[in-house]
Design a protein that fits this description.
The chain contains eleven helices and seven strands. With 243 residues, it is of the alpha/beta class. It has one domain: Rossmann fold (3-Layer(aba) Sandwich), CATH 3.40.50. Strands 2-1-7-3-4-5-6 form a seven-stranded parallel sheet, sandwiched between helices. It is globular and about 45 Å long.
């Protein structure tokens, strides 16, 4: 299970948090940490620096996905992305789809099955465009949203008032129809209010509950392979986690 950190996450913090997520989720996967050069500071200048660093790292993430897909003992790859890591993930998936041969055989045999987007710091309009560019050649996408995420509200201010994907109301239009049309599964975490964490980190503060949601999503994805996974499959699955 590879991991990739997001904004304001130094290497040591990324290692610790990723290990905690893997432990709490009790996921039967192989953990691998992929890092990109975050400045590791919670300041406006650092935010723009990290965004450029994420852009710089998209080819490396795409290369990693390619390497994993070529491993015969890796049967499935799933991505768990948090915050700014979702932008990097979408960029890598877009580049991947451009280079892909969109045949029915390739779509069926693609090892990248699921992308779980937690508190995505992504422009909603950019998300629409990225989905259109990927077309059919994309994994199943699940969104974990919180409508009271103050960190994303600040990001919205920085980007000129354009709403971020991670704090939309999935029951309102046009989002409800768009998510349904694109077969995107949505989990609203707003009600999971923890006194130990703000909304932006709610998915990890309430790890047991959210991990259960993730496990259910992964199990649903495995069921679509039309066969029962045996023990070796569980060991050989790979999940790419972006924090």
């Amino acid at each position: 299970m590879p991991g990739l950190h997001g904004f304001n996450n130094r290497f040591d913090d990324a290692v610790y948090r990723f290990a905690q997520i893997v432990h709490d989720a009790k996921t039967p996967a192989i953990p691998v940490l992929f890092t990109w050069p975050s400045l590791g500071q919670a300041r406006l200048r650092a935010y723009t620096y990290d965004r450029e660093s994420a852009n710089f790292s998209r080819d490396a993430l795409e290369d990693l996905l390619h390497v994993l897909a070529r491993q015969p003992r890796v049967t499935e790859v799933n991505i768990l992305a948090h915050s700014m890591g979702n932008w990097l993930t979408l960029e890598a998936l877009r580049g991947r789809s451009i280079r892909a041969t969109r045949s029915a055989t390739n779509l069926k045999s693609d090892k990248l099955k699921n992308v779980l987007m937690v508190a995505p710091d992504v422009d909603v309009d950019v998300f629409r465009v990225e989905l259109q560019r990927m077309g059919e050649y994309r994994p199943r996408i699940s969104l974990f949203l919180s409508r009271d995420d103050q960190a994303l509200s600040l990001s919205e201010f920085i980007w000129g008032g354009v709403q971020r994907l991670g704090d939309v109301d999935p029951t309102q239009e046009p989002y409800r129809s768009e998510f349904e049309h694109d077969h995107i599964e949505v989990f609203d975490l707003t009600s999971l209010k923890s006194t130990a964490s703000n909304a932006h980190g709610r998915a990890f503060a309430e790890a047991p509950t959210v991990a259960a949601m993730i496990r259910e999503r992964l199990i649903a994805g495995q069921a679509l392979s039309n066969r029962e996974p045996d023990l070796s499959d569980k060991v050989e699955e790979t999940t790419l986690s972006v924090k």
